[in-house]
Write a structure and sequence with these properties.
Helix content is 20%, strand content 29%. The protein is an alpha/beta fold. It has 2 domains: 20-135, Translation factors (Elongation Factor Tu (Ef-tu), domain 3, Beta Barrel), CATH 2.40.30; 145-306, 3-Layer(aba) Sandwich (Rossmann fold), CATH 3.40.50.80. The relative contact order is 0.15. The structure holds flavin-adenine dinucleotide. The site of flavin-adenine dinucleotide (FAD) has 24 residues, from strand 4, strand 5, strand 6, strand 7 and helix 1.
Length: 307
């Protein structure tokens, strides 16, 4: 197997005490009109800041929303994954984009709007935003990116880094090995950047876009489609890739999604993608989440960013 050489990155050039102001240049909705969810593609102009040439795909930026929390303290920073390739949005190195979902919760009959996501979603081109970062040193493409096959698992806004990584792998690296994107969301209206991935799937025989629509479609046995179900349902495509020692797995999105993926990988005998720290029962599916999480960690070939 090729050595995985992760690039050196500079972290926290800007901190909450010393943030930098960038400007919004674009803020457009990317979910369908009929979707009950609102996800936006937001691009910042980072010209004149030390972020230029120092932000890599896979990293995140921190956003400092204005105002104070209920205790009168300045709002804490929230992280947002970069969705543009390392060379910048549209190849422009002064432009960096992200993918933001408005968060809304109801508790005791009151509606709570998430502070940072709704602040970002309301911004207009020209508006300033205080950012920190970059952050994240491991969820990166290797420097020798062309040496590997990739299986990307995403749910929701977890798609953000894969949009940039896929652009980078195909436009810059000229990837000849295999790349599979498995994206899960509840309804078709919540597919993100789907036109781009469909087009990539058509244009590149080594790129495969697999969608799992959990609340609309059913598998032949009546169960729901989750990202890990593709490991079973698309065996013909995935097994020959998973069998190769130079395949890397990346997981990004909802916290907890990694458990289903690791359980299915172990169930199928793919133990090279995980580090097993305690003896597992024959049926890994019988394990409670808490004990599974203690026993199974990602291996050097698996990268996870869940939140
Ligand atoms: C590494 C990393 C990368 C990330 N990347 C992305 C990304 O690319 N895109 C993205 O959209 N997000 C991303 N996130 C998540 C993001 O950082 C925020 O956590 C998210 O946007 C919610 O922040 P918020 O300020 O809007 O909500 P918060 O104000 O932090 O609130 C969180 C939730 O609690 C609810 N809430 C608030 N107050 C109450 C209350 N009193 N009672 C009950 N409920 C309440 C809110 O409605 C909301 O749903 C990432 C997180 C990490 C760690």
């Amino acid at each position: 197997m090729a050595e995985i050489k992760l690039p050196e990155v500079e972290l926290n050039i800007y901190t909450p005490r010393n943030p930098v102001e960038v400007k919004v240049v674009e803020n457009r909705i990317v979910t369908s009109e009929s979707s009950p969810n609102f996800v936006r593609h937001i691009t910042f102009d980072i010209s004149g800041t030390d972020l230029v040439d120092r932000v890599r795909i896979g990293q995140s930026l921190g956003v400092l929303p204005p105002g104070e929390d209920e205790r009168g303290r300045p709002h804490k920073l929230r992280l947002y994954s970069i969705a543009s390739p390392t060379k910048g949005e549209g190849g422009k190195k002064h432009l960096v984009s992200t993918t933001v979902k408005r968060t809304i919760d109801e508790y005791k009959e009151k509606i709570y709007l998430g502070v940072a996501s709704n602040y970002l979603a309301d911004l207009k081109p020209g508006d300033p935003v205080k950012v920190t970062g970059p952050s994240g040193r491991r969820f990166l493409l290797p420097e020798n990116a062309e040496d590997f096959n990739y299986i990307f698992f995403a749910t929701g806004t977890g798609i953000a880094p894969f949009r940039g990584m896929i652009q980078e792998l195909f436009e810059d690296t000229g990837l000849e090995k295999e790349c599979v994107l498995i994206f899960g969301c509840p309804y078709r209206t919540d597919l993100l950047y789907s036109d781009y991935f469909e087009e990539m799937d058509e244009n590149y025989p080594n790129f495969h876009y697999l969608k799992c629509i959990s609340r609309e479609d059913r598998r032949p046995d009546g169960t729901k489609h989750y990202v890990q179900s593709k490991l079973e349902d698309e065996k013909e495509l995935l097994r020959p890739i998973l069998d190769q020692p130079n395949t890397l797995i990346y997981i990004c999105g909802l916290k907890g999604m990694q458990e289903g993926i690791y359980k299915e990988l172990i169930h199928q005998g793919y133990t090279g993608y995980v580090e097993i720290r305690k003896k597992l029962p024959d049926n890994v599916y019988s394990m409670e989440s808490s004990s599974f999480r203690r026993a199974v960690k990602p291996s050097a070939r698996t990268f996870e960013e869940v939140y």
